[in-house]
Amino acid sequence: MHRDLLTQHPEWIDSDGNCPRCDEYDRRLAELIAIFQSANEQPVNKTAKKATMNAAIAA
After folding, report:
1. How far apart are CA 50 and CA 40, in angstroms?
2. Torsion-angle region of residue 42: left (phi > 0), alpha (psi -120 to 50) or beta?
3. pTM listed for this prediction
4. What single string gives the DSSP state of each residue in 12-59?
5. What are the extents of the domains in the chain?
6. Residue 43 has what pLDDT?
7. Neighbours of 10 (CB within 10 A)
């Protein structure tokens, strides 16, 4: 995904070659994966699970 973002948005690349926005996308994706994994591992009621997923997506 990181390479795809760099290809699609070369303007995001700093002069030193870093891409803070891409790093932020990577960090957020990792957070979402962790949230969904924990939601799948621990039984919770449907309302709480939906609220957690909606909050994660909205952030």
Report:
1. 12
2. beta
3. 0.56
4. GS-TTS--HHHHHHHHHHHHHHHHHHHHHHS---HHHHHHHHHHHHH-
5. 2-58
6. 62
7. 9
A 10 A CB-CB count for 29 gives 12
Q: What is the mean pLDDT of each run of 10 residues along the chain (59 residues)?
A: 85 94 93 88 64 70
- Here the tokens at position 24 are 């932020």
**Distance (Å, rounded) from C-alpha 12 to C-alpha 6?**
7
**Contact yes or no for 19/13 (Cβ under 8 A):** yes
pLDDT of residue 10: 93
Locate 8 and state its tokens: 């699609």
Cα–Cα distance measured from residue 36 to residue 3, given in angstroms and rounded to the nearest whole number: 24
